[in-house]
Amino acid sequence: MQMRLIRCWIALVASVAMHGQGAPVVQSVVNAADYSSAIIEGGYISIFGEGLAGATLVAQTAPFPTVLGGTSVEIRETTPFGVGRVWALPLYYVSPKQLSALIPYALGTSGVDVVVVNGTQRSAPRRVTPRAAGPRLFTYSQLGTGSAVLARANN
Fold first, then answer.
1. CATH assignment of the domain containing 93
2. Is 74 a residue whose pLDDT tops 90?
3. Residue of 66, 98, 103, 105 with fewest CB within 10 Å of its CB?
């Protein structure tokens, strides 16, 4: 009996080593500029959690890819009839504990579900409510306070 338990334990450890640590876990979805809950159409979001990506990567092309290092993010609109429209978000940055993505316009202000896909594993949906307006500014302190980072488009 003890030998059988040891074999099962070895098989479990080998399976985790081969297939990763399981589904990604989304702990929070915030505005990337000031880490507030103000998710704005057309703005950047940061997603924090565990197992979000297999490596740390930054997008090297514009427009940003919707899959970066095997990781993607979906926003799913839910309706009384089930899942409505689904958007694949452009990704700027992925790492095991943080993702940065661009929210599309025309989401509306009803709640949507954010789902992270890492390889073949999908996170549980995380409900967020986007706003149509409410711009936020990136700051030099990277805390959402202090002097804003601003640039002219023709520089």
1. 2.60.40.10
2. yes
3. 105
